[in-house]
Amino acid sequence: MLLKDKIAVITGAASARGIGKAVARLFAQQGGRVAILDLDEGAAAAAAADIGPGHIGLACDVTARGDCERAAQEVIRRLGHVDILVNNAGITQPLKIMDIAPENYEAVTDVSLRGTLYMSQALIPHMRSRRSGSIVCLSSVSAQRGGGIFGGPHYSAAKAGVLGLARAMARELGPDNIRVNSLTPGLILTDITGGKLTEQMKTEILKGIPLNRLGEAQDVANSCLFLASELSSYLTGVTLDVNGGMLIH
Ligand code: NAD
């Protein structure tokens, strides 16, 4: 049991086939208690109930600072404390550079980048007071290779921003014994693509993956467990690629 008695907050974890839900399930299997935060309270609560008793689901739009603060306080009140935060909520859009309208830019950067900032800010004082914490941020291979998988340039920019934010937080929070690390998944089979990923696109992408398969949410969850748990006790500010070898560099 790698997370016995640990409490974890996971944003964007209500999506049934999503990375956040897979992380929540794995953390629960490892003895952790999980708070699933997502836009819809009913969906968050149902996802929490689905992974077992003792977990909770709360409504939280990570782009709203007040939501993040309220959710953080409620988790602390109901579960006692928080050891782990996984900044997982994110959306994408397959747009070309000239098609990105202001509302597209705002939607995509707000969820990944502003959301990571606000949710971290909501829990950092608590983690500081306990002199203990592990924060995992979901970036993407799109940040490293400039897209070309599914999301548009605004998605690449948002996810590159997440890497910078995570590294800066790691530097600032290290003395408080709070570790901050990032995951950069390749193409993972979830519903984030909203049915717009064609078989032809998958075949093209597969040609560039040495392990010769697309990723599963479980692949990312396994890596997230490593970064969240004490297995990675001397790691902070790292970027862990979870992409089947798509970006060997
Ligand atoms: P998903 O669409 O299955 O799940 C995303 C979840 O985020 C949904 O439950 C959604 O309701 C929630 N969400 C959206 N906006 C929100 C907001 N404002 N506040 C709170 N929750 C919100 O996506 P996924 O594929 O599981 O992606 C999870 C994370 O991994 C995202 O940050 C994504 O960018 C990143 N990622 C995914 C892939 C991939 O190929 N699937 C690759 C690299 C990185």
From TrEMBL:
PROSITE patterns: ADH_SHORT (PS00061). Pfam families: adh_short_C2 (PF13561). GO terms for biological process: fatty acid elongation. It comes from the Bacteria. GO terms for molecular function: oxidoreductase activity, acting on the CH-OH group of donors, NAD or NADP as acceptor. Gene3D superfamilies: NAD(P)-binding Rossmann-like Domain (3.40.50.720). InterPro entries: NAD(P)-bd_dom_sf, Sc_DH/Rdtase_CS, SDR_fam. Belongs to the short-chain dehydrogenases/reductases (SDR) family. This is SDR family oxidoreductase. It comes from Herbaspirillum robiniae.
